[in-house]
Amino acid sequence: MSDKSELIDQLRIERPVEESGGVSWVVWAIAVVAGVGLAGGVAWYAFPRAIPISVATAAPAPADVVVGPSTILDASGYVVARRQATVSSKITGKVVVVGIEEGQRVESGQVIARLDDTTQRAAAAQARAQRAQAEANLTAARVAFENAKPTYQRNELQYAKAVISAQTLDTAKAAYDAARTNLDVAASALEVAEAGVAFAQRNLDDTVVRAPFAGIVTVKAAQEGEMVSPNSAGGGYTRTGVGTIVDMDSLEIEVDVSESFINRVHPGQRVTAKLNAYPDWEIPAHVIAIIPTADRAKATVKVRIGFEAADPRVLPEMGVRVAFLEGEPASSAPAQTTSTQRALVVPMAAIQSQGDVGIVYVVNDGAVERRSVKLGTKVADGQVVLSGLSSGARLAVGDLSRLADGAKVRIAN
Predict the structure, then answer these.
(1) Which of 94, 148, 150, 263 is buried deepest, with most CB atoms within 10 A?
(2) Which of helix, strand or coil describes residue 320?
């Protein structure tokens, strides 16, 4: 038993007794480093970081770039045509030829369609035959009258010399009067026949449909083989028009202005128009007239606005927004009063454009201020700013999507 105990004691490993100093200094060092890292991470996420940007300065625009008269009223409306016609035939008939297509330009009097003219040609031929017959009857009546006239004159002389009786003279006079009456009737019949020929020719001409004025075809309403009528006498299967023609030179704008602000509008007033299809294109225009009646339901007054110049991009029924500009200053205004002021130019990279309004970020004391500005035209040096900035303002340039009002920034080299 004692031998086994001795063997077990020999196999036992002796461990040194730890000093009573507590945790090793290595553990404390690791804990300190971890604490510093954690504090740095918290500070990194808890405190805002400065966003690197570049800076540009708003400079005065060139002398030829000016801000026009200020806008005193905005309104929306549509482009309309003053001359627009759905062309139809004057008679009911079957279409045999249609010579137009959408988008085609036609001139005044140009043939755009033809109807079946078989009946009208037959009627015209009949009228001409009746005229020829009337002409022959007139010729016969004239010959009879010319023969009766000398006979009656001779009988008058013979009766004066008591050569013939009164009865013979009366017979000659009756024949003469009848011949003269027949001549008058034949002449009137010829006039009726001439009118009949003109009427038949007019009906024949009405089978040809012509453009009433020069313009652009916007709608092709009929096809070969269909019936057309000016009053749709044939029911639902009869077309009332061949096509629609618009005079593009007559395009203008119609807008509804609230009656509360109609006192700001006057004929001849300058207007700037922007089509919804071309929001960056400013079109000069002017007020043509104010329609002298109000819409009771909408409490608006219709205003007609004319373009200063025609442009093929302007199409009927386009949506448009118009800005009524402040009128020229009166002659009695002080001499220092002007209708224009200088604009500013800033780099394109300093603006977030939203149509005619933009967003810029003004740099002040390491932070940015979000500001809305009114934009003008684009020039070689950048974007014209009409209002909202002062000359010399420092603007952030860079990735503006990272910026917000009050964001901290730092100017990068």
Answers:
(1) 148
(2) strand
Residues of the chain with pLDDT under 70: 1-29, 31-49, 63-70, 232-237, 327-342, 355, 413
Please report, for residues 141, 174, 189, 251, 297, the alpha-carbon distance to residue 149 in angstroms, rounded to integers and kept in the order given.
12, 11, 22, 70, 81
pLDDT digits (tens, 9 = 90+) for 240-264: 889 999 999 999 999 999 998 999 8
Considering only the top CATH level, what class is 118-205? Answer: mainly alpha
DSSP string for 161-181? TTSS-HHHHHHHHHHHHHHHH
CB 353 within 8 A of CB 77: no
Per domain, the residue ranges of the chain are: 52-67+341-411, 71-81+248-325, 84-115+209-246, 118-205
* Cα of 123 vs its chain's centroid, Å: 46
Tell me the CATH architecture of domain 71-81+248-325.
Beta Barrel (2.40)
Q: Does domain 84-115+209-246 have CATH number 2.40.50.100?
A: yes
Q: What is the DSSP letter of 46?
A: H
Do the beta carbons of residue 79 and residue 314 sit within 8 Å? yes
Does the pTM exceed 0.70?
A: no
